[in-house]
Each structure stands twice: as C-alpha cells, then as structure tokens.
TrEMBL record:
Name the record gives this protein: 5-aminolevulinate synthase
Keywords, alphabetical: Acyltransferase, Transferase
GO terms assigned for molecular function: 5-aminolevulinate synthase activity
Residue ranges constituting the Aminotransferase class I/classII large domain according to the UniProt record: 63-400
Requisite cofactors: pyridoxal 5'-phosphate
EC code: 2.3.1.37
Signal peptide: none
Amino acid sequence: MTQTTPVSSRNQRNVLVKAAADFVTKAMVDGSYRTFLPLRRIADDYPNAYFDRRGAQHKASVFCSNDYLGMSNHERVVAAARNVLDEQGLGSGGSRNISGTSHYHVELEAELAALHGKESALLFNSGYVANEETLGVIGKLMPEITVLSDSKNHRSLIEGIRKSGLKRVIFEHNSVSDLEAKLKALPADAPKLIVLESIYSMDGHFGLLEEVCRLKHRHNAMIFLDETHGVGVYGRTGAGVADSLGLAHEIDMFQGGFGKAHGATGGYVVGDRFVVDAVRLMAPGFIFTTSLPPLVLAAALASVRHLKQSNVERERLFANVSLLKDELRRHGLPVMDSPSHIVPVMIGDSFRCKSISDTLLREHGFYVQPINFPSVPRGQERLRVIVSSSHTEREIRAFVIALAHIIAATS
C-alpha cells in the first residue's frame, strides 16, 4: 500500500494565502478591487461626515447613503434608542430562543404586520438574511414549487432560491412577455412563486408590479416581493411601492429592512401567520444567531411609526431627487433614466469611475462610492448618486457642477 506524506499545516496555509493573493491581485488589475472610506458621520449635520486624509480631518457631503430620509438622526429615533440604552444596556443577551426576545421585538413585529396588512411578521438581523432564510424554508415546506426569478434580483434572493433547492426559472429583467412565456411553459396546476423587487437598487427601476399581479391570477402563482428600498419612501404610510399602487393585498410575502429609509439596521418578512411561524421554527439563520439589540428595535419602531404619520421627509426627498435629475440632464451628464429616487450616472470603466469618485472627494468634498463589478456587469460601472431629504438645493447644484467638470476633464 502506497504511503502518502501528509501536507503540513504550514504548507496548507501557504497554499491558501497564495490563492487569496492571486485573487486580490487579479481584482486590482481588472478594476474590481474595492476600497472603503472610513467616515465619521456628523449627527447634527447630516448628510455631512468627516474623513481622514494624510493625517488631517476633512469634511464631505455624502451623496451615496441609503439613509434616504435622514431618519438615523431624527430626534424621535435617537431619543428612543438612547432611552432603551439607559434602561436595558446594549446587547440582547442571546438568540430569540434563549433570552434574546424583548418586548420591542414583539411590538415591532406587530407594527410591521399591520403596516403591510398581513397576519404576522418576523425580524432578522439583516434584509439579506431575511431573504435567504425565508426562501430556504419555503423550499422545505413546499418542495414542488417552481420559482420564477427576475434576472436582476439581489444576491440575497438568488442565494435564498439556491438554498431552497427549488426548481428555478430566470426571466428577463422587467420583461412581462418573457415571464408570461415561462409561466405558460409550466403545468397550469403546478405551484409557482414569482420573486422580484419593488425597486432594483443598481438601476433605480421599479419592478412591474401591476403586470406581475395580473399574471399571478392568470397563471395561479404566488408573489414574494423584496421592498427593501421601497419601505419608508413610498406609500401614504411608508409601506412601500406595492402599497402606493394599491397592490399590497396581492403580495403573498413581503421582505423589508430598516437599514435604508428607516435609518436603523435589520430586516424582516411579513405574511400569513403559519408561514411566518414556520420560518421562525425552521430557519437556522434566525434560530442560531444573537438577536437585534433592543435599542436598535426601539429606534426602528420609532422610525416606522413616525413615517406612518409624516410625509414631510418624503416630500423633501422627492423634491431633491427631481432637482438632482434636472440638473444632471441640464449639464448633459450620462444619467440613466431612473423613475425612482436612485439615480445612476453611467461611467462604463472601473478605473475611470474610481478616479472620478476620488477627485470628487479630494477636490470638491463630495463622496460617491464607485459601483463596479460584481455589483454591476463589467462595462456598466457607475456612480449611484443618492440625495437625501436633508441635502440643500445649494449642495445638489454644487455637486452636479463639480461632477460635470470632472467628467468633461476625463472624457
């Protein structure tokens, strides 16, 4: 019998390090390497933040934050978090199953179910986990379902569908004709789940909800909708895009999150009581993780409740979005035709995209993170420009002038 010499731990580690180094080097060469800018946000001067350069502190106006409505600094939200921090301390102390369920968990879940007009809600530590774990459980509950997934769905939805083990059919982005063709190709009595987003965050496009809801009835399907970028921003009470279209009752299951318009962190799903309860009992990403801290939940609850009553923040946001789009077009910049509050400016080259971003920050004090592969396909690199309700008209105009100058100088 041939004896083999075991590979030492040191050699194994060297192989791993070499593979990692090759991967990182390739990313640097092809322009997909990512760098992060450490920011120190200014609570009473949002959306401005400090950053360090060569040991000195500089100030920048942030034009890429998902804190669309500035709720992370709203007095009610901050006060709610501060009060619970004083009362209960920082962490939750465990998973939801083991001492990590506070009355804020229960109260926020009830609030979310009511917001979306569904029976029940369940909190997760992020929207990503909410998507991945819920779709995974649906696959275990009903393994005969075929999932029809938009080709531009978020990675969390893609991973959730993979985890589910369900048969998967991909339809062209926002193509009603392709979706219908693929629905027709399935047996009429086969269970089907259409998975899509209300807003696609890289392009700013709305999902075609009205058309998809019509197909749902025509072909006996269910709908799982990711409303992450819609909640808080759209709808009379901030319930999202589906609610703004009067279609919330057509959606079988919603996913949303607090890390965008609500200015906090965490995610959730809402739907029928027994389905949500099954997710609670079966999803490992829910069961085996420390729960969200009470202070975060108190902040999210305050934000949800405020945005149910107030349209001031939404009105300011959309006024700023309209101004931004008008100014970008007036200066002839390559802005994608986006109907939502997310405004991509197309650059088409990863190195140039990074250079424009760096120059904006270094010379003009505006921060926009470049969006490169794999977040978008190669050749579609962009600056995803986002204004908040807190930006001033002067800041927006100055930003566009600076961007136009840099793009012209580098073209």
